[in-house]
Amino acid sequence: MYDYNNKPELNITPLVDVMLVLLAILMVTAPVLEYEENINLPKGSKSQKIQQLKKIDISVNSLREVIVNKKKYPFDNFADNFILFSKNKNRDISVHIRADKGLKYEDVVYILKTVKEAGFFKVALITDG
Question: What is the spatial distance between Cα 96 and Cα 60, in angstroms, rounded to a whole number?
Answer without folding.
Answer: 11
